[in-house]
Amino acid sequence: PPMFLFLNFLVQVEIFTEEIIRAGSAASLSTLLNRLDPVLRKTANLGSWQVISPVETVGYVEVVDELLAVQNKSYERPTILVAKSVKGEEEIPDGTVAVLTPDMPDVLSHVSVRARNSKVCFATCFDPNILGDIQANKGKLLRLKPTSADVVYR
Q1: How far is CA 84 from the centre of its chain?
Q2: CB neighbours of residue 40 within 10 Å
Q3: Whole-angstrom distance, CA of residue 116 vs CA of residue 19
């Protein structure tokens, strides 16, 4: 019981700390910048991609509505997930080698940090035509080669 109480206390402190950070002005500024980023990128001609974890990889394309729905799944073969919705608190499923999304989670979000630590390619695509082209390759093997501002695929 004493160990359980101590662990419970640590969890409560972590949750409290996360809530304090999310309630602060830095979180509001981050949300504002995320909304402005696509406009600024277009104005500055910076391309259609925000690459969060630049890892070159090869995998089979799988399209899902939300990362949350498959976070506990385990893929048997290397999988490139095209997720229409990524909030930021999800886990990356086992067997996933890349996550591509039109959503833009914060670069310091849980999923972004997990992607970098796990060497999983993670990128936001602002161009629905490019994302649609990748989705059209569902079930096919694709190679992703990200740079700092682009993702080349074939």
Answers
A1: 11
A2: 10
A3: 23
CA 149/CA 71 separation, integer angstroms: 26
DSSP class per residue in 98-116: EEEESS---TTSHHHHHHH
In the predicted model, is pLDDT for residue 91 greater than 60?
yes
Q: Which residue has the tokens 């277009």?
A: 42
User: Where is 52: in which H helix or E strand?
Assistant: strand 49-53
Residue 4's alpha-carbon distances to 8, 9, 36, in angstroms, are 6, 9, 44
Which whole number is the average pLDDT over 97-101?
A: 98
For the entire predicted model, the pTM comes to: 0.74
- Assign 150 to helix, strand or coil: coil
Q: Where are the alpha helices (DSSP H) in the chain?
A: 2-23, 25-43, 67-70, 110-118, 128-135
SS3 21: helix
Q: 121-125 and 94-101 as β-strands: parallel, antiparallel, unpaired?
A: parallel
Select which of 73, 84, 110, 116 is catalytic: 110
| pLDDT over threshold 90, residue 71 | yes
pLDDT tens digit sequence for 104-154:
888 888 999 999 999 999 999 989 999 999 999 999 999 999 987 789 999
110 assigned to active site: yes
